[in-house]
Amino acid sequence: MNIQIPLTVPKSKAAEYTNNIKKATHGTGKLMLFAGDQKVEHMNDDLVGASLPAEVADPEHYFKIASGADIGIFATHLGTIARYGGDYKNVPYLVKLNGKTNLIPKENHDPLSRQWVDVADVVRFKKDSGLNIYAVGYTIYLGSEFESIMLHQAAQIVVDAHQHGLFVVLWIYPRGKAVSNEKDIHTIAGCAGIGMSLGADFVKVIYPYGDDIKQSAENFREVTTAAGRTGVLCVGGSKQDSEKYLEHVREQMNTAGARGIAVGRNIYQQSLNDAIDLANKLTAIVEGRE
Length: 290
Known about the structure:
By secondary structure, the protein is of the alpha/beta class. The chain has one domain (11-286): Aldolase class I (TIM Barrel), CATH 3.20.20. 40% of the residues lie in helices and 16% in strands. Strand 2, helix 4 and strand 3 form a beta-alpha-beta unit.
């Protein structure tokens, strides 16, 4: 695996930066990100329901999956890691630095998701806790009237994280009153290009899932091309049939040129054993071990 080290990483931190990416991608450069930030983003909407196992409502369900499955990295907020990380020291972590709830409809107000904690806070926590923290993440809503605030914070986060040898995943979604179609492939490609321009190592973007799995992947090449040297992670979205989702991921990796996936609901809205089984299958596809 040949890792291109961005010039924002000082020479004294190059080995740590390289090692963090190698560990998270199991030496492949391709990342299976298990997303656990929905406790904030979706509140309890995706965690309870007649069709869901009762264990899904327990925040520890995330950690049991992340600990038992062969994932690349588990993304969640610092407070959540502080509460459970001591019991799950084998888990590879990404600390999500911002988040917002879904209580304010986008029709009422353009989204703004400010930074909660600084990279320096994460670095101190990593040292004090001894946990495997390899990366930080941040969400930007392009098209929001507040995008400049989020772009500024994201740019600073990338620089700060690289200075400490951490890699960065940016969640970038087109959202706000000015956005007429969040799934427009040209707009998504623009989001990927912004991720590259900010210096992100990976950018998580919307994937327009369609009935024609092959065609959806071919269309998505515009996005991976726009990202350049920044790896594109395809969002998993709402829970779907597992076998169909696995086929989508195969095409995302092999046809679209994605460098990974970022999946939450398709994994955690299942019993522990089923969630671990699917997570392992997804990692094998992403890393080319299927």
